[in-house]
């Protein structure tokens, strides 16, 4: 496999599925962190963010059911791949975004990429708040003039009085 996959640092909610193409006797012991990391082309994986699963262990639920109900994958994204997922046997590797966030994957044998699936995207409904406290207007207390405004008014009046006084003195003296 020569596909290179870059996993952005901010990626969330993506599930990468790989088939593990190994004979049954080799596949049983292959799923160690070191083997999985080497096959993905990364130094190491975040523990608890990847799974090495025997498909036969998912009887009753199936791989698609496990991905939908156990991992939260959007059923609409799985719909087109259901026949392919049902045909998978042996082991699969499930890698969550958090296991490899911010790294480049270079998967190689025995891994075979099946697909990348995401959680359903939903936006919370935006409804108007219904509450008595949310109705009407809030009366704002009226502010009085600031100290600076009052000082400016007093200074203006003082200048006008002085100007009038100078005018009277010029008139009397002239």
Structural write-up:
37% of the residues lie in helices and 17% in strands. The chain is built from 7 helices and 6 strands, in the order E-E-H-H-E-H-H-H-E-H-E-E-H. A 4-stranded antiparallel sheet has the order 3-4-2-6. A two-stranded antiparallel sheet has the order 1-5. The radius of gyration is 37 Å and the shape is elongated. The chain starts with a strand and ends with a helix. The model has no long low-confidence stretch (mean pLDDT 89).
**What is the string of helix and strand elements?**
EEHHEHHHEHEEH
What's the arrangement of strands in the largest beta sheet? 3-4-2-6
Summing up helix and strand content along with how strands pair, one would put the structural category as alpha+beta
What radius of gyration results from the CA coordinates?
Answer: 37 Å
Q: Estimate the global geometry from the Cα principal axes.
A: elongated
> What fraction of the residues are assigned to beta strands by DSSP?
15-25%
What level of helicity do the residues show?
25-40%
The residue-averaged pLDDT reads 89
Query: What composes the largest sheet?
Result: 4 strands, antiparallel
What is the tally of helical segments?
7
Q: Which spans of ≥5 residues are poorly predicted at pLDDT below 50? A: none
Number of strands: 6
For the record, give the distance between the C-alpha atoms at the N and C termini, rounded to a whole number: 109 Å
